[in-house]
Amino acid sequence: MKEESIWGVVFTNNGLEELGEEIQPYLSEESHGRYILCKEVDMSQPYLRVLIDYQYSDGSPFEIEMYIPHRYIKLVAVGTEEKLKKAIGFISNNK
């Protein structure tokens, strides 16, 4: 069974500051910075389009589509979830 690719989008500090509280529920944080894991990313539009799996407070899932200015993005990487997390520091390479 082929693993699905997942995208990691790391934000700049200025981007996080300007996006403010609106982006906070979707962010995770590690030593390299704050990021979101996405199931799709489209960089060909005037804004970076991301598709995120998210959950309501009751645990039921839904997808959210966001459009983020490119200038707010520090790094975009794609891979299988475990390999992506190791490659850009989301988890230790020792795991």
Write structural notes for this entry.
The two termini are 22 Å apart. The chain has 95 residues and is mostly beta strands. The model has no long low-confidence stretch (mean pLDDT 85). The protein has a domain at 15-65. A hairpin with a 4-residue loop joins strand 4 and strand 5 (47-55). The protein has two helices and seven strands, in the order E-H-E-E-E-E-E-E-H. It has helices at 13-19, 81-87; strands at residues 5-11, 28-30, 33-38, 40-42, 47-55, 61-69, 73-80. It is globular and about 35 Å long. It has a four-stranded antiparallel beta sheet with strand order 2-3-1-7. A three-stranded antiparallel beta sheet has the order 4-5-6, with no helix packed on it.
Key features?
four-stranded antiparallel β-sheet, mainly beta, 2 helices
Strand order in the sheet with the most strands: 2-3-1-7
Low-confidence parts, pLDDT < 50 over ≥5 residues? Answer: none
Cα separation of the termini:
22 Å
Label the overall shape.
globular
Helix-strand makeup class: mainly beta
Number of strands: 7
**Series of H and E elements:** EHEEEEEEH
As a percent range, the share of helical residues equals 10-25%
- What number is the mean pLDDT? 85
| Largest sheet: number of strands, sense, barrel closure | 4 strands, antiparallel
Strand residue percentage: over 45%
- DSSP summary: helix tally: 2
Our Rg estimate from Cα atoms comes to 13 Å
Give a summary of the structure in a few sentences.
The chain is mainly β and 95 residues long. Helix content is 15%, strand content 47%.
